[in-house]
Amino acid sequence: MEGMPCTAVMNQIRSTVSHFIWDSQNNRTFVGTNLSPLWEKFLVPCEDDSVCCQHMSNPLGNGAIVETSDEKIIVLQRSNNVGESPGHYVFPGGHSEPQEVGILAHQNDEKDVAGLTERISDEMFDGIIREVVEETGVPASSLTEPILIGVSRRETNVRPAAFFYMRCNIDSSAITELYARAQDGYESTKLYAVSLKDLRDMSQRLPGCHLGGFALYELMRNALESS
């Protein structure tokens, strides 16, 4: 994509994102497969991921590495009362909502595939902005357009997540104050705004997919520094 205008790059990324498997299964299915102590028994021995994980719920999660105006990175500590990764450090995120694009159940109808694909692609990017706003309390207008930096998958329970990079034009102290009024603040117990060095020290307490997201962020930084 070297030399391509930013708009063309973003359109190409959006087109690529729309081809990811975006599962609309409910939370009970996720808890009963990916979060089950017996999750490995649902896997099919095969190098093709689509075959290997065909019996898993595997909803595609999302996460955002958000840099503040004073060069800090936002990290949340998960509540001990949530079902997934209680007490862990995580980046803001969650998952896109199928109902946002009109998907209320599994669909086999192949009509208007192009239109549905475009709506799903848009929701991937709109959804991560919504998650950051709801979990941190920062206004959407303070965030840059998300840039997809890659997809990570946990070794434990094989849950995949798409990771995005964005900047916030608010400093870390103001974000800490906004967090107190965050819509989904109950999902976490504290917001940290940390340096890259401190984040490296905290990284072993990230869930596997978020650890992979951090690795993708470091790859992005290294590529920018060497360009």
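The record above closes out task 2.4. Task 2.5 opens with a second protein, given below.
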Amino acid sequence: MSTEDAVPKTHKACVYDQPGTCSIAIRDVPTPEPGPNEVLIKLTHSGICHSDYSISTRPLLTSH
């Protein structure tokens, strides 16, 4: 395995830091280790649906 393929110990994550608000923070979090019959997938891009964002200030956050 080359250095480029090595799994980092931490990764960046976008987290809601104040539940019930749109306040988010980018944090370094531990990279999980996959369990039996699981895989760890490297993401290069991600997004959020506008409908998820529009209801994020309510107690309910749905996903699809």
